[in-house]
């Protein structure tokens, strides 16, 4: 049905409003999307902007399949580096992210990071080059889809979903090393759930 609606929209070459709860329909059919929660507009933007720059945690979790991972933790500065701390793990943030957090007074405060599943990497070369953004995680479920693999991981209290290109060699029960594409993480204020970056 999406294809037919898209063809009709192109043929009529006019503005129309399409209301849906299906985020896939919204992303594929919309030139601009209005994301609402409890009758209140959260964000109005193009699909690309909503996906890459959500204004809050709700929008970030609503758009994307599988959903964006969200992990609770704290921002700390150690040895001149700004880090996201959760459980026993520490992820070093890049300089731009660190400076922004310092300027906004987030050092020592609780935050939530968001990372999309496709921005979690299990390839050894990437991990070696991004060792300060890596951590060990336990494999709970592996879904090999051919062109991609979904890994459902656990790390302490957190559940993490990763979308890996191709077939993964990971097996249920393995403890594997993963790394985050640090420039792709989002950070949200723990209290307001608004985007920090």
Question: Outline, from the CA principal axes?
Answer: globular
Q: Report the sheet-strand fraction.
A: 35-45%
Main sheet: strand order: 5-4-3-6-12
Which homologous superfamily in CATH is the superfamily of the largest domain? Nucleic acid-binding proteins
Proportion in helices: 10-25%
CATH architecture of the largest domain: Beta Barrel
Question: What report would you give on this structure?
Answer:
This protein has two domains: 1-62, no CATH class; 69-189, OB fold (Dihydrolipoamide Acetyltransferase, E2P) (Beta Barrel), CATH 2.40.50. With 197 residues, it is α+β, with helices and mostly antiparallel strands. It contains six helices and twelve strands. The longest helix has 11 residues, at 2-12. The strands form three sheets. Strands 5-4-3-6-12 form a five-stranded antiparallel beta sheet. A five-stranded antiparallel beta sheet has the order 7-11-8-9-10. This is Trehalose import ATP-binding protein SugC. Pfam families: OB_MalK. Residues 64-120 form the MalK-like OB fold domain.
